[in-house]
């Protein structure tokens, strides 16, 4: 599914126009992104939890040359699926 298909499904399920559904989806995604940008956790009951994790700086290797490289610390997004989502996926 892509963003266009998601907007159409939201419009069909809610009775909104596709334009209104598109704005609603965009606002939802923006709110989640902004919260994660502030290192907040976003919990959607039954769906899952988005959180921000920290990766420490470490040493790695270039797979082509074998040369050692330094990988800087970074933040990453984590997602843990909720019970309802896991049940739908596992049938």
Write the layout of secondary structure elements.
Elements: H1 3-14, H2 18-37, E1 42-44, E2 48-55, E3 58-61, E4 68-71, E5 74-81, H3 83-90
Helix pairs in contact: 1-2
In words, what does this structure look like?
This protein has 91 residues and is of the alpha+beta class. The protein has a single domain, classed as HU Protein, Chain A (Irregular). The chain has 3 helices and 5 strands. A hairpin with a 3-residue loop joins strand 1 (42-44) and strand 2 (48-55). The chain is elongated and about 55 Å long. The model has no long low-confidence stretch (mean pLDDT 96).
What share of the residues does DSSP label as strand, in percent? Answer: 25-35%
Major β-sheet, in short? 3 strands, antiparallel
User: What percent of the residues sit in helical stretches (DSSP H or I)?
Assistant: 40-55%
Contiguous helical run count: 3
GO molecular function, one term: DNA binding
Protein name: HU family DNA-binding protein
Keywords: DNA condensation, DNA-binding
Pfam families: Bac_DNA_binding
Structure characteristics:
Hist_DNA-bd, structural constituent of chromatin, HU Protein, Chain A, elongated, DNA condensation, 30% strand, DNA-binding, three-stranded antiparallel beta sheet, 44% helix, two-stranded antiparallel ribbon, DNA binding, 5 strands, 91 residues, alpha+beta
Question: Nutshell version of this structure?
Answer:
With 91 residues, the protein is an alpha+beta fold. It has one domain (3-90): HU Protein, Chain A.
């Amino acid at each position: 599914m892509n963003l266009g298909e998601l907007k159409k499904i939201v419009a069909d399920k809610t009775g909104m126009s596709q334009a209104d559904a598109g704005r609603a989806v965009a606002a939802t995604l923006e709110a989640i992104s902004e919260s994660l940008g502030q290192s907040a956790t976003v919990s959607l009951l039954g769906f899952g939890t988005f959180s921000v994790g920290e990766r420490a700086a470490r040493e790695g290797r270039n797979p082509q040359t074998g040369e050692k490289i330094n990988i800087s610390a970074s933040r990453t997004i984590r997602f843990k699926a909720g019970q309802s989502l896991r049940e739908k996926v596992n049938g």
